[in-house]
Amino acid sequence: MPDVATLLLLSVAVFAGAFVSGLSGFAFSAVAGAVLLRVFQPLEAVPLMMACSIGVQATNLWALRRSIRWEGSLLLIVGGLIGVPIAVSLLQSTDTHLLRRGFGIVVSLYAGYMLLRPTLVTASEAVGRHWVALIGFGGGLVGGLTAMPGAIPTIWCDMRGMPKSEQRGLVQPFIAAMQVFAIALLVGHQDLSSKVFVDLAVSLPALFAGSALGVIAFHRVNETVFRKTVLVLLLISGISLI
């Protein structure tokens, strides 16, 4: 493939992933990876997607800084930091293909059912701190196995009927922290190709343009459209694991 065509596909994939992530808060790799994993080798595509996703999360955190719920997010993060190393250990010692497929089926069934659910019930009761940390642990564990750290916290927020700003303010810092932790572990286990840094530099304009437009779209859509968007992305992400 000519270099110009490769760079064009890179920019389109990164822009699309950044836009979706800016709108929903997650799913950059699910969208951008559909193209990047076909254009680049996995050893180049995976760290590139992780680096780009961290860039998107940084943009999201800045844009949504007034909505961030730091106390709840820190509880999620503490739980997640415990779950990720366990997932890394499982990846090295067991065949996790069945676990990924099973999780993909569960997420797909949940998203499909919720898309057909006529009403959204809002939970008003308080949740114990240990339960929030447990959700974070599950997110970190599953994220280490599937590269989808935000799936479980997002589902939990949806089940509680959280408004979109409250949901993003709780889950966004968690996803960012898990991705930084994951790329730190990746760098510690392997040397990154210099081509990854070149591709990252080339994709920065598309990355920030897509992120900015996605955040603008997030502020303009109503609660119903946001929820359906999140559920559709969960459904797509779940199917991709099956």
UniProtKB/TrEMBL annotation:
TM segment ranges: 43-62, 74-92, 98-116, 128-150, 170-188, 200-219
A Pfam family the protein falls into: TauE
Location(s), subcellular: Cell membrane
UniProt KW Ion transport keyword: no
Keywords, in A-Z order: Cell membrane, Membrane, Transmembrane, Transmembrane helix, Transport
GO CC terms, sorted: plasma membrane
Source domain of life: Bacteria
Topology term for the membrane: Multi-pass membrane protein
Record keyword Mitochondrion present: no
PANTHER family: MEMBRANE TRANSPORTER PROTEIN, TRANSMEMBRANE PROTEIN YFCA
Protein family: Belongs to the 4-toluene sulfonate uptake permease (TSUP) (TC 2.A.102) family.
This protein's name: Probable membrane transporter protein
Upper taxonomic lineage: Bacteria, Pseudomonadati, Pseudomonadota, Alphaproteobacteria, Hyphomicrobiales
